[in-house]
């Protein structure tokens, strides 16, 4: 019999049955079967873990975890290691139990930095500097159309890491894009010394996130109620267990705070100063300007997770055990339920999967950047200058840094050691410390110790330096 006629026949014969029984009978008569074994455990595991990793980054987000969630086994396996004890370690094995590592808060190594007051060997900064550098690099791409056309003579440039060991590469014959950004950091304490541990403010939930979170909670509760209405107590228990397990886990993990920590300043460090940031993989150099404690927090700081008390981490172990129990129980209970109950169960999972996918799409790096800038705000009018060559970029950066020792910085950023480069550095360093008018003539590169080829190279280098000086005077 066709499915449509089956529904008509059931409706005519079931006038004395309740509506719930009628709906259930319709699904059975249609022969609808669902195979949900395995879905509850493996469906959406990666997105569920990523969604849980943002639970403590949004204001009030921890209170919207009362929904049936897919990938509960993956969440328990990942974050059960937060309960750092021998007992929980046996249930949730893993070599690294550091919350910062588990949440992936310091995902990348930051760019190199050099302080103007002590231009020693470049040091690696932390992930906060990486976030600011890449945020500015994204803005720098918008200026690519303003690049000054390359001149006929391009100076050969060898890129290198701060170790001083050159790698192959020259300035491209086509116009390149390099930029220097002057960033002023605002001290939020209004002149007071920043604490060594700064709790970053959580981001407010946007309208879309609030609506989607509320919809997910309502969908799971509605599905649970509907299962009770059709008297499918197997699926009712499965959804209710998922709601409780997820809600308690979100409350515990969401109680954590994101903290920016950094070492104290060295004695004798001036109150105000400048620091240069550069990354060998980017064509962007940033000069940070402001109070040195704020600059120190950005360049030497690291993110970490801070729980209010130690028992909270033990409670996370209990919640993780509940999540694991839920995933196993759902494998057993859901196949025993009615087809309509299985559909409702999958609907509750699907709504949560949509929420997790949305949180994953936001990007944790972007969220951390916004939280960082909330604690260490930057001035909106950042000065960004484009250049046609790496040489002009570095010269402008040294001018902006206002360092008393330009030799060390030039050797780190431009480690080339050919006769033309040595001659150029010999002339340019006295003009940079302190800055003097750049008025280079033929006599500066037309010297006996340089070959004709080296003289042409040196002429291009001096031209790049004059371009940087002209841009500096216009700033």
Mean model confidence by pLDDT: 77
**What is the spatial order of strands in the main beta sheet?**
2-1-6-7-3-9
Largest sheet: 6 strands, mixed
N- to C-terminal distance: 83 Å
The run of helices and strands is: HHHHHHHEEHEEHHEEEHEHHHEHHHHH
Radius of gyration (Å) = 31 Å
Share of helix, binned: 40-55%
Q: What's the number of extended β-strand segments?
A: 9
**What amount of the residues lies in strands?**
5-15%
Shape: elongated
Per DSSP, the total helix count is 19
Task: Looking at this protein, list some descriptive labels.
475 residues; alpha+beta; six-stranded mixed sheet; elongated
Strand and helix map with partners:
Elements (H helix, E strand, L loop, with lengths): L2 H11 L5 H11 L9 H4 L2 H8 L19 H8 L6 H6 L7 H4 L9 E4 L7 E2 L2 H14 L37 E7 L12 E3 L7 H23 L3 H21 L3 E5 L10 E7 L5 E8 H9 L1 E5 L4 H23 L5 H24 L1 H12 L7 E5 L2 H12 L4 H8 L5 H14 L9 H4 L6 H23 L1
Helix pairs in contact: 1-2, 4-5, 4-13, 5-12, 8-14, 9-10, 9-13, 10-12, 10-13, 15-19, 17-19
Give your account of this protein's structure.
α9 packs antiparallel against α10 and α9 runs antiparallel to α13. The strands form 2 sheets. This protein has a 6-stranded mixed β-sheet, with helices on both faces. Strands 4-5-8 form a 3-stranded antiparallel β-sheet. The chain is of the alpha+beta class. β6 and β7 form a beta hairpin.
């Amino acid at each position: 019999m066709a499915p449509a006629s089956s529904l008509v026949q059931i409706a005519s014969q079931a006038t004395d049955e309740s509506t719930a029984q009628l709906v259930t009978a319709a699904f059975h008569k249609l022969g609808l079967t669902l195979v949900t074994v395995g879905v509850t455990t493996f469906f959406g595991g990666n997105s569920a873990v990523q969604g849980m990793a943002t639970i403590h980054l949004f204001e009030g987000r921890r209170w919207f975890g009362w929904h049936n969630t897919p990938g509960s086994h993956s969440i328990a396996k990942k974050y059960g290691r937060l309960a750092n004890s021998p007992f929980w370690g046996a249930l949730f094995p893993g070599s690294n139990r550091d919350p910062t590592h588990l949440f992936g808060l310091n995902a990348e190594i930051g760019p190199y930095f050099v302080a103007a007051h002590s231009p020693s060997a470049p040091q690696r900064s932390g992930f906060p500097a990486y976030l600011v550098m890449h945020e500015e690099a994204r803005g720098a791409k918008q200026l690519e159309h303003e690049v000054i056309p390359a001149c006929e003579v391009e100076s050969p440039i060898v890129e290198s890491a701060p170790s001083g060991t050159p790698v192959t590469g020259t300035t491209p014959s086509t116009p390149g894009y390099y930029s220097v950004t002057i960033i002023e950091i605002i001290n939020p304490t209004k002149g007071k010394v920043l604490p060594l541990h700064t709790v970053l403010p959580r981001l407010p939930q946007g309208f879309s996130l609030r609506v989607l979170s509320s919809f997910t909670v309502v969908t799971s509760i509605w599905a649970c109620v509907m299962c009770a209405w059709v008297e499918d107590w197997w699926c009712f228990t499965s959804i209710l267990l998922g709601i409780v397990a997820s809600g308690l886990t979100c409350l515990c993990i969401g109680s954590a705070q994101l903290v920016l920590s950094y070492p104290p300043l060295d004695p004798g460090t001036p109150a105000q100063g400048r620091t240069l940031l550069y990354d060998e993989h980017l064509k962007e150099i940033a000069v940070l300007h402001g109070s040195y404690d704020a600059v120190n927090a950005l360049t030497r700081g690291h993110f970490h997770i801070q729980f209010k008390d130690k028992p909270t981490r033990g409670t996370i172990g209990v919640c993780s055990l509940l999540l694991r129990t839920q995933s196993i129980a759902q494998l057993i209970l859901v196949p025993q339920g009615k087809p309509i109950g299985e559909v409702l169960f999958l609907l509750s999972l699907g709504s949560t999967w949509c929420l997790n996918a949305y949180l994953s799409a936001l990007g944790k790096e972007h969220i951390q950047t916004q939280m960082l800038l909330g604690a260490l705000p930057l001035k909106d009018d950042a000065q960004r200058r484009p250049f046609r060559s790496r040489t002009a970029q570095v010269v402008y950066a040294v001018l902006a840094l206002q360092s008393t020792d330009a030799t060390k910085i030039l050797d780190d950023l431009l480690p080339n050691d050919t006769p033309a480069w040595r001659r150029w550095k010999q002339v340019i360093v006295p003009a940079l410390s302190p800055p003097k008018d750049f008025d280079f003539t033929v006599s500066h590169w037309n010297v006996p110790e340089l070959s004709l080829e080296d003289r042409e190279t040196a002429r291009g280098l001096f031209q790049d330096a004059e371009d940087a000086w002209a841009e500096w005077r216009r700033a």
